[in-house]
Each structure stands twice: as structure tokens, then as C-alpha cells.
Design brief:
There is one protein chain. The protein is an alpha+beta fold. It contains 25 helices and twelve strands. Helix 6 runs parallel beside helix 8, helix 7 packs antiparallel against helix 16 and helix 7 runs parallel beside helix 17.
């Protein structure tokens, strides 16, 4: 393909993403960003991991979190997103990362589809691949994890090239860089397994031992080990993580219903509905004039992969808290490949069938683009039209509430390193972002001993709450879960303003043992004396997502 066509392809991706980012450009920190697994923790992991004193110093302790969290419990210092948070302020770093990984996802998907899936004249721009790539980058991925999903097309593109005998150095670069731009525990391990399976199947089909691709897979594994050294070595040295008590399971007990849900709404990508893909597949199958071999073969491969992923997701246990079920992070690329094959068949059936395919694809692109604005300007659009907002995510600035927390800090009047705080209703990420030293936190990995110590503080409340199972069997949310509040409200950060707790019972002696000095509560605590607390002052701000009721732990 000539340079001019490559330029137009990349420009198309850039323009699509600029449209996607318009609300962020207009609203700035007034834009809303996903809270779950994002503002509530992952951004803070990047902020702390990128600090100069913590960056690659895995043996140090982070005193701001949980009375001293081992540095190796946090994200790798060799990760691309960690570097961005070292270079830019958090909000800018988040947007730069989001834009970069989506653009790489666009280019990777186009390269994969145009060369290995939908082949046309090499000098032409592949319109189908271009539109499918636009669809792919609008899926509401958790981009704070870098190229965890969005980098998979480029890796697969490069690996297919190697299987075909191509020796370009870029094929090695794309694969070997993936561990530095993604999360090993979410997709890095599973991508490696998938590459190994593809290599094995190719060797069997060709009846030939392909040593070069195998060498690439092995080197990829070594690089993953180097990047995630901070997670792997402590386990070998006998570190006991709270994840050892993690028990994953499916509450409905029905694999079929669970799988059907995934066929309609693809798992954690909660706004990626697959109806347009299925419509395209059905139309392609019906209109293929009896020659259904290609579509049938593609559906068979997809069904095998999907069933295996569902079986792993549903039945596969965790080892030392490492979830072997996360093959579902490979599903989005599988959906896009199925979509592309079906679309290509429609295009081959004549002008009317092609127009039908384009219409369905346009609906999918528009839907994903509009739904993504739920996290940013969707509520403002709905409010202006008189419709009720469907999502209530606070803005970035309202969530972290710097002016309000500065008022609290000024009132206390001491260096933040001289005291420890515990949050009730307010997500610990908020106070951590503002420099407070918190005893609670949302952590993917922390000492098991600390979990047991923290539980003594909230034991009485857990007995009154469905959060008991969440804390005992999961534990990442090392939070105070009041029995009067549903734990989902706490986890989502919805228990924020104008609330009252009437029957809170914390273990006073455990609070003192853990060194708690102040309680930051989003709700007024009636009868606070029973938990050994003394009310000091309430802080409210219309621009803050939270109220703060400040209590001191009474030492007498």
C-alpha cells in the first residue's frame, strides 16, 4: 500500500477519536470518567507507582496506604501507563493514554483485517476493515489498563506474519512490546496461551515444526516475567496475599443463562451489545445463496472459542488469587473478526446486501459512540433535553473534590503524615488522591495479615450486611461497609451526600490498634460515641460529589 493511503487510514482513525474526545476537550476536568476499576483505584495505582521514590523500588513501603503497603503490590514501573502518569498531571495522563491506545487499536485492527481476514487489492483502502476498526475503538474498554484488549489485533497481525514466514523486525517489535503496554494478569498471560495454541494448531495442520514463532512465544513469556517481576518474585519468596482467600463463583448456578448473557452483552464491556453483529451474521448466512461454507466455518470456530472461554470463566478456579478465567478478555477481538467475515460476505452479495451491512455497521458505530458519552457528557445532554439521566457519574474534579478536602486538611492543621484516616462512604481513592494517609483502600494485592486486622474494625457491621461475603471471599474493597447501607452503594461511590447512619458500630480497640486518628464520613453518624468517635465539623461544597463529616477517634 502506498504512503498516501496509509496516511488517509491513520487520519480516519485520528478524526474518529477526536470526535470521541470532543466532550473531554470542552468540559476538561468537568467531564465524567468511569468510577469502577478506574477513578476508585487504578488511577491511584499509577500515580503512586510513577512517583520517583517508588517507581522501580519494589522493596520499599508506601506509607500513605494501609499503614505501609509493600511497593511490589502495585502496578509495574515498566508499564507505559505508569510512565505517562510520571510525565503528565493525572487527568491529562488519562486522556493521553486513552487516545494513544485507541489509535493503536484502530491501526492494529485495520492491519489484521486488511491483510489476513478481508483481502482486496493491496493498493486500495479496505473500507470494511476501516469501518470495523472504527467500531472496535469505540467499545468502552478499560483503557487505564493500556493495550490489554486494544493491542491484541496488532499482536495477532504480527504473529500471523511470522507464521507465514515473514522476517520483518517490526513483527517482533509489536509482540515484544505488548507486555510493556498491557496488564499481564488481565490479558498478557492469556494472549501468550492463545499464541501458543495458534502455533500448535498451525504446526499440526502443516505437519511442520515452526521454530521461529515458538521462539517468539517463549521470549514473550520471558519479557512478561521481567515486566511483572514485582508480582511474581514475592509469591516465590513466601508473601501471603489477601487474594489467597479469594473465592470466585457464579451465583445463578446456570452456565447456559450466563453464556447467553455474554452472547448479548459482552461481559465487563457493559455497553458493548452484540445485536448488530448477530444481525449481520444472520443476513450473511441467509443471503449467501446457498454457499454458506465460509460463514458456517467462521461460526464454528467462534462457537468453539466462545464455549471454551465460557467454561474457563465459569468453572476455572484461581491459583493464589490469579484468575485463570480471564480468557474473556479475548472476546472483543473474536467478535470483531466474526463481524468482519459476515460483513465481507454481505458485500459480495450485491449492492442491496452491501447497503444493508453498511446500515447495520453504522448503527453499531453510532450506538457505541453515543453510549460512551454516558461517562462524559451523556447526562448533560439528557438534562438539557429534559430526560432523566441514566448514569450518575460525577465529574473528575467533583469526584476527587480537592477544594473540599483542602478545607478538611486546613481544619485539622497537621502534616498529613502525622495522622491516619479511615473513610466511611467516601472512596479511599479520593482521600489518597488528596495526600491523606488512609487505613482503607481498594487494592488488588495487599498482605493477608492486614485484611484480618482490618476485619476486626468492621466485624459487627459485616454481620449485619451482605458485604460480609464480599469482604471474606474477595477483599479487594478493604472498606468500612455499614450494615445500614447496601455495599454496592459504597463500592460505586453513590453514598455521598445528605445521608445519616443511625446504628454504626465500629470496634474501638481495633481502631486504636490500627492507629486511626480521624474518620472521614460522607454521612452524619448518630450515636457516634458508641464507636469511640467525637464529632468535629461537617464540610459541604456544591461542586463536590461528597460531604465530609469529620470525626476524631477518642483516645480516652
Amino acid at each position: 500500500m502506498n504512503t498516501l493511503n496509509k496516511f488517509w487510514i491513520v487520519l480516519t482513525g485520528v478524526v474518529c477519536l477526536l470526535i470521541y474526545f470532543i466532550p473531554y476537550f470542552v468540559l476538561g476536568e468537568g467531564a465524567s470518567i468511569r468510577v469502577f476499576d478506574n477513578l476508585d483505584g487504578e488511577i491511584l495505582y499509577k500515580i503512586f507507582a510513577s512517583k520517583k521514590s517508588y517507581w522501580l523500588n519494589y522493596q520499599t513501603i508506601i506509607p500513605e496506604i494501609m499503614n505501609g503497603l509493600p511497593r511490589f503490590c502495585m502496578t509495574s514501573g515498566l508499564n507505559y501507563t505508569t510512565l505517562l502518569f510520571a510525565l503528565f498531571p493525572p487527568f491529562i495522563a488519562y486522556l493521553v493514554n486513552d487516545f494513544t491506545v485507541r489509535l493503536i487499536g484502530f491501526v492494529g485492527m485495520y492491519a489484521l483485517l486488511s491483510k489476513h481476514i478481508i483481502q482486496i487489492m493491496r493498493q486500495k483502502i479496505n473500507i470494511i476493515a476501516l469501518l470495523i476498526s472504527c467500531t472496535y475503538v469505540f467499545i468502552p474498554f478499560f483503557t487505564i489498563y493500556g493495550l490489554t484488549e486494544l493491542g491484541q489485533p496488532l499482536v495477532l497481525f504480527a504473529f500471523f506474519n511470522l507464521l507465514k514466514g515473514e522476517k520483518s523486525i517490526l513483527n517482533y517489535v509489536w509482540i515484544f512490546l505488548f507486555p510493556f503496554f498491557s496488564s499481564f494478569v488481565l490479558s498478557g498471560f492469556f494472549v501468550g496461551v492463545a499464541l501458543g495454541v495458534i502455533w500448535l494448531i498451525t504446526c499440526i495442520r502443516r505437519r511442520q515444526f515452526l521454530h521461529r514463532p515458538l521462539f517468539v512465544v517463549l521470549i514473550y513469556a520471558v519479557i512478561c516475567f521481567i515486566v511483572e517481576y514485582n508480582l511474581i518474585i514475592p509469591i516465590l519468596q513466601g508473601f501471603h496475599s489477601h487474594r489467597e482467600e479469594t473465592a470466585f463463583g457464579k451465583s445463578d448456578g446456570n452456565l447456559l443463562l450466563y453464556s447467553l448473557k455474554y452472547l448479548w452483552e459482552t461481559g465487563i464491556y457493559s455497553q458493548f451489545y452484540t445485536l448488530p453483529i448477530w444481525l449481520t451474521v444472520i443476513f450473511a448466512f441467509i443471503l449467501n445463496k446457498g454457499k454458506r461454507k465460509t460463514m458456517g466455518k467462521t461460526l464454528f470456530y467462534f462457537a468453539v472459542i466462545f464455549i471454551l472461554i465460557m467454561l474457563f470463566e465459569y468453572y476455572c478456579p484461581s491459583i493464589k488469587g490469579f484468575r485463570l478465567s480471564r480468557f474473556y478478555h479475548l472476546l472483543p477481538i473474536c467478535w470483531m473478526l466474526l463481524f468482519a467475515v459476515a460483513f465481507q460476505i454481505l458485500r459480495q452479495q450485491g449492492r442491496k446486501a452491501a447497503l444493508l451491512g453498511y446500515a447495520v455497521l453504522s448503527v453499531q458505530i453510532a450506538f457505541l459512540l453515543f453510549r460512551s458519552y454516558n461517562y462524559c457528557s451523556g447526562n448533560k445532554i439528557r438534562d438539557s433535553l429534559g430526560f432523566q439521566s441514566s448514569y450518575h457519574y460525577p465529574s473528575f474534579s467533583a469526584f476527587y473534590a480537592k477544594p473540599l478536602l483542602n478545607e478538611v486538611s486546613d481544619f485539622i492543621g497537621k502534616e498529613k503524615s502525622e495522622y491516619r484516616v479511615l473513610n466511611i462512604g467516601i472512596l479511599p481513592a479520593v482521600t489518597q488522591y488528596n495526600g491523606f494517609y488512609t487505613l482503607d483502600s481498594y487494592q488488588n494485592n495487599y498482605p493477608l495479615e492486614y485484611k484480618h486486622l482490618f476485619k476486626k474494625i468492621i466485624d459487627r457491621e459485616l454481620e449485619k450486611s451482605p458485604a460480609k461475603g464480599i469482604f471474606d471471599n474477595f477483599g479487594n474493597w478493604c472498606y468500612v461497609f455499614p450494615g445500614e447501607v447496601h455495599p454496592v452503594e459504597i463500592i460505586r461511590g453513590e453514598y455521598a451526600k445528605n445521608r445519616v447512619l443511625y446504628d454504626l458500630e465500629l470496634n474501638v480497640s481495633a481502631l486504636k490498634t490500627i492507629g486511626c486518628d480521624y474518620i472521614f464520613s460522607s454521612a452524619e453518624i448518630k450515636n457516634c460515641e458508641r464507636s469511640g468517635l467525637k464529632f468535629l465539623k461537617s464540610f459541604k461544597n456544591d461542586d463536590s460529589h461528597w460531604d465530609v463529616w469529620l470525626y476524631e477517634v477518642d483516645v480516652f
